[in-house]
Write the structure tokens for this entry.
Amino acid sequence: MVQRILRERFCHHHATGKPFGIEHQYRHLLELLKRTTVHGESNSALIIGPRGSGKTMLLNHVLKELMEIKQIRENLLEVHLNGLLQTNDKVALKEITRQLHLENVVGDKVFGSFAENLAFLLEALRKGDRTSSCPVLFILDEFDLFVHHKNQTLLYNLFDISQSAQTPVTVIGLTCRQDILELLEKRVKSRFSHRQIYLMNSFDFKQYIKIFKEQLSLPAEFLDESFAQKWNNNVQHLSEDKTVQDMLQNLFHYSKDLRSLHLLLMLALSNVTVHHPLITASDLHEASKQYRMDSKANIVHGLSVLEICLIIAMKHLNDVYEGEPFNFQMVYNEFQKFMQRKAHCMYNFEKPVVMKCCAALCWIVAVHRHKQLTCQTTCLAWSRKFRKRTGLVRHLNTYYNWS
Amino acid sequence: MPNLEHPAYPAATLLRLESLVPCRESQVSMLLSIFGERQQFTFPSIFIYGHTSSGKTYVMQTLLNTLQLPHVFVNCVEYFTSRLLLEEILIQLQNCSFETKHASHVLCDTFNDFVRMFKQAVTSQDLQDQTLYIVLDRAEQLREMEANILPAFLRLQELTDRNVTVVLLSEIVWELFRPSTGCFEPFTLYFPDYSIGHLQKILSHNHPPEYSADFYAAYINILLGVFYMVCRDLKELQHLAALNFSKYCEPVVRGEANERDTRKLWKNIEPHLKKAMQTVYLREISSSQWERLQRDDGEPGQLKGLSAHAHVELPYYSKFLLIAAYLASYNPVRTDKRFFLKHHGKIKKTNFMKKHEKTSNHLLGPKPFPLDRLLAILYSIVDNRVAPTANIFSQITSLVTLQLLSLVGHNDQLDGPRYKCTVSLDFIRAIARFFSLLHLKEGQSIGP
């Protein structure tokens, strides 16, 4: 039961509870939308913030609150577009038609241009026995992908309408790119109202701990009151535990956004069963370790001894020649020299065997191919691991001493 | 005592599951705890990575089939364009439900249509309360498709507003997948490679019934000892184990040794395995050829792979041509005068040479040379007079066809064709053994 509620909260992005630390932005957006829907003003705004900072969540909250007002609920038309789904303007236009439920009206008409089509749609909205048409809200998720369409026609037309036309139209874009305004064309930028709402994850560590507590706590309406009480007490206890705080501090320094916190909490939550009903500090520590596993180190661990020797050879070449490209022959030479130095256990492999290993390695390790069919590896980032690895190779050599 | 416990699934099923996935219990239990109960939400996307044959596909399939969770399993190499992939997912979705009897063809061009049809498909079935899993194997191919496919799949739960989880299986780490502007981060799970103990356990699992488990285990031990340093791939090791087992059993079959004479068996099998490393492991000879060789019990020296050079017999002048080509490729032009003329002067080392002394010419690969230079070197190394007849030129062309030389540059180059020598020093040495050119070679092959 607990699992269900908390999993929904963490994984399903249901807007539960109030968002934290963004009251100012919330009010701003709410004002804006109210002006469109109630007073008939056209507007445009961009919500900018890094990934996971809560842009979509903010918008959904505001919409939910707006929908509680009867007048708006009956009048407002929403069109949700997403840059990932509508990859070009034609698809976007069809999607708009579909979401406004105007497919029948459009029928088989052929339009000369995008603008004509859009104007027709908005005109059609008007014809529903009203003197003025309903306000339309365009929400463009992944706004930065729309700017890569040809001529930015969709954006141009939407902003154009929001500046000029009679129908009250609000265009809200959500993006993670800070430099989004530079990507807009001049004519599009001039029609945009330059209203930007920033969501910068601007909470400090104390608030972060509070958020942690709040996210884990069960809501008041939970059925089993005594269990809920126990659970919430446990959460309180956890948030005061020094080790848990250290771990949260680590995570906070790495990434402030709530998405990573949710991932961590979800992992810890998945250990909760009937036999193990409360989350413990060790659960959180396990989850933290799992979350922060170094994937490259893992992959290197799984390579065979020969492949590790080849990586060491490549790294050595990289260091000696300062990043110049090298080919298989050079790696093999380096490998031979390496074998001669540490001659005790590994016998010399034939060249084709080494070549097969090298080919497999290139595939896994993202060794980049230079244009003249020589390879350059990017294992510079693994330099710290290599001091450990040479030790490991020696250790491996003694372990697999076959002769 | 079963290791895997979960309240949502019956214990008998879990026990069966555990028997099917040896040495992977911890990964399976983690997956089970993440999946939770059938109707609970889980991570919108999970990324599982691990080396080849570390069991990712197998474990995923076994888990989903044994627990009968609704799923769609697609291999991204098989459905290599976005359209094929999306259509296949929709077709398999139709098969998932019990209502539709036959799979009608769906037309799905873009991800937009996919989301729409997906939403329809899921609502119309009894999948509404269960988590649907979409498993994409070889997910690194997703990077090659359109740029929106990967981020859209990672967010599929949000885009369709349904209870669906996308699982990506790959050999490559997540850092190499991440798009430049970021995306929804999946939960990453690592499938560690099998340790030598695990490999031993798994390989000994399928022992042929005629022999005891201990006997087979000893054989696997020997096999791992030879091959483990080079290759940890379970599939390859299984292949090698199957091929070489009959040879291993030979002494027992012939009656020379019984099952426990490990020393004798080891002495019998060891050179065999070393040969196998050079031939079957490298896929130079096919496994059927290998088996035939074993049956005939041929001489060890007769084993020839594809790249063995003894089988290429060249005419007299072709051999010289090839040696001349090698010299032309690997010696810099300015040393020609020194090596090939009777009266030569000393060559002064310039600054340029001093800087680049480190990289031996051998390592950098062959350099192209014009035809005239080849002929000039040829005339100087052949003792008697060679006439530039069409015979010689046609031999050059046949060397190109044999891919011992390669033509560099365009066909209709006006200055004359340029070639490059594509054979290695060992090959040339083998050829040169026919002539007493060895003393000449020693002086010439070593670069500055």
Remarks:
- Residues 368-403 of chain A have pLDDT under 50 and may be disordered.
